[in-house]
Amino acid sequence: MIASEAAVSLNFDSSNATFSTLIALSLIAGSMASPTRAQTDGSPTEAAEQATNQASETGGLFGSTNRQSLLPEGLTADQFIQFFTLFSANDDITPIVDPMFAQMLEPGPQVDGWQSTGINIVEEFEALDGGLRDNLIFEGGELMTSVVDLSGEATPDLSHFLSYALRPEIPFETGERAFLKFTQDVWFETFGQRENRDNALCYSGYVGITLHSKTPYTEWSEDELLTNAMIFAVADRLANLELCVVYDRKDDDTYSYKAYLPDGRTLPALNNGSDVSLRISFDKLQEALKGSESP
User: Fold this and answer.
1) Contact 32, 3 (CB under 8 A)
2) What is the pTM of this model?
């Protein structure tokens, strides 16, 4: 199956709501090309561009046991970051990713008073022992792990990772931080602006993105490189959207949520009723990062 066919055929199960796009991208990465090693005598930028262009060819990928790095030898960390940016901007990525966003963001009817539905999860967490900084939102499934820090101030120990700022953070008066894992030993940390509108949590668009890896990128397989590059390409586009989420309580530590556009129109593809989040402590996040296991 070629990449574009995979994109069209995806069923947005959206059991992880706002981040379902990123989950889908992990699947699509499996149908991306198995590119050959980049060879160039040009500048580091040209090397990254050549590797990016090769990465967008169609063909089989998953199942490969090639442990040779896809990137040109001698690529610095800055050039590695540039590879992600060029990959995301590549014209061949747009027809793969855009159909997913079109399906995910197909609006439903507008709901009167949607901002006042559900609960104010920020106020509830603030009132708990440890406040926002020690009460985090966990979502887990077969394809991903997500931990959301509503305070935006979580500072777990990441000294055992190699970290690469793919999109720089911008200080926000009200920020929200998330830690996302799609592949073993690699986490994406995002930081974005949040606006609280009654019970609704609304996100204005820009998202800083940092990749944390336990292994050097020079040791990644082709699968690992393309999967993470595709995840970034989707996150990069997700950063340009404005979405809102309203949480509701299912029991003391379990929550459901619904996604809306800022004008109150529902997003049926995301709101299938199966989305569940758990409240966990900061220590659980730290344990997960150390062991790369789910909290």
Assistant:
1) yes
2) 0.76
